[in-house]
Amino acid sequence: MTPDELQSIIAAGLPCEHLEVAGDGRHWSAVIVSREFEGKRPIQRHQRVYATLGARMHTDEVHALSMKTLTPAEWAAQDHQS
């Protein structure tokens, strides 16, 4: 799986304002910004992303995924210049 493929899978199952995915084919990191995260605790946000990946999280397709999950307001409050 490529970063673009994983990004497409997440985007197909979760409306995102911003989505960045990087990784080596097994170990991934993602920055995911979605209105669906509003009012949810971090664990609930991660569970929502895992739900979009389904069985891929239980096979070796996505061995590990480190996520930064943000609402649009949280994303806007960060400095994206660095």
Unreliable segments (pLDDT under 50, ≥5 consecutive)? none
CATH-derived architecture: 2-Layer Sandwich
Radius of gyration: 12 Å
Classification by helices and strands: alpha+beta
Query: Roughly what is the average pLDDT, rounded to an integer?
Result: 90
Oligomeric description of these chains:
single chain
| Annotated CATH topology | GMP Synthetase, Chain A, domain 3
What share of residues is helical?
A: 25-40%
Structure description:
It holds the Pfam family BolA. This is BolA family transcriptional regulator. Belongs to the BolA/IbaG family. InterPro entries: BolA, BolA-like_sf, BolA/IbaG_stress_morph_reg. The N and C termini lie far apart (28 Å). This protein has a single domain (3-74), classed as GMP Synthetase, Chain A, domain 3 (2-Layer Sandwich). Strand 1 (18-23) and strand 2 (27-33) form a beta hairpin. By secondary structure, it is α+β, with helices and mostly antiparallel strands. The chain has three helices and three strands, in the order H-E-E-H-E-H. The chain is globular. Strands 1-2-3 form a three-stranded mixed β-sheet. The protein has helices at residues 3-13, 42-53, 72-77, and strands at 18-23, 27-33, 64-70.
